[in-house]
Amino acid sequence: MGAGQTYQWLTQYPGFVDIGVPFCGAARTSLHNQVFLEGVKSAILTAKGMRSGGVGLIAAAGEDAKRVTWTDDEKVVALKALGRVYAGWGFSQAFYRERLYETAYGFSDLESFITEFWEGWALSKDPENMLAMLQTWQTADCSNQEPYNGNFQLAMQSIRATTLVLPSKTDLYFPPEDSEYEVANMKPGVGKLDVFPSIWGHWAGGPGDSKEDVKWLDERLREILDS
């Protein structure tokens, strides 16, 4: 959620930050993204027989006590479910259509990729940590602070730093259209939009498995830092 943190700095300390490069993220979590996160949250909570409390909340009223402890079996069930939900979102439709899970990662079939890559990734996490991060993500909005009080346009107009916004063309979480709106609401000459020409979806911005995307990002960072 580095892009969201970047926007927080840009708007909370507009006179302090000189350059901002939010990539593969957003200044606020879109409604569609909030809906996606409800699915992730419910996948985790179901392992303990719990329900979501709704957007911006974790568990339904009266159910928080169930989260005090997680058995090892509950953790495994929750995290494997988390991994399978994420599998359809981290990478793009084109990534799967072009079978990059085979050519780039070396998996022999789709199920192996989901099991070994996505479930393996998820099993390295802690369910409570993931729920806490999810709540932060789901409620993220840099205009939800003084002096903006929810006025998103005012928050964007407050940015003084040279800001290069780099969404991924195929990011299912943070599509370029959202970034276009952010830049359009900045003052003239402050923001610039450039789009990763990638089919790696959100993964275009990291962790660096797509070397072409890493090269593209490095070139943009070098340009803005040298300007």
SSE diagram, text form:
Layout: H1 2-12, E1 19-20, H2 31-46, H3 72-87, H4 93-97, H5 100-103, H6 110-122, H7 127-138, H8 152-157, E2 162-165, H9 176-184, E3 191-193, H10 211-226
Parallel strand pairs: 1-2, 2-3
Helix pairs in contact: 2-3, 2-7, 3-6
Task: Kindly state the number of beta strands.
Answer: 3
Helix count from the secondary structure assignment: 10
- Cα gyration radius (Å): 19 Å
Low-confidence spans: none
Strand order of the largest sheet: 1-2-3
Shape, principal axes of CA atoms: flat
Give, in order, the helices and strands.
HEHHHHHHHEHEH
Strand content: under 5%
Straight-line N-to-C gap: 26 Å
Mean pLDDT, as a whole number?
A: 95
Major sheet = 3 strands, parallel
Helix content: 40-55%
Structural class: mainly alpha
Describe the protein in words.
The protein has 227 residues and is mostly helical. The chain contains ten helices and three strands. The chain has helices spanning 2-12, 31-46, 72-87, 93-97, 100-103, 110-122, 127-138, 152-157, 176-184, 211-226, and strands at 19-20, 162-165, 191-193. The protein has a three-stranded parallel beta sheet. Strand 2, helix 9 (176-184) and strand 3 form a beta-alpha-beta unit. Helix 2 packs antiparallel against helix 3 (72-87) and helix 2 (31-46) packs antiparallel against helix 7. The longest helix is centred in the N-terminal third of the chain and has 16 residues, at 31-46. The radius of gyration is 19 Å and the shape is flat. It starts with a helix and ends with a helix. The mean pLDDT is 95.
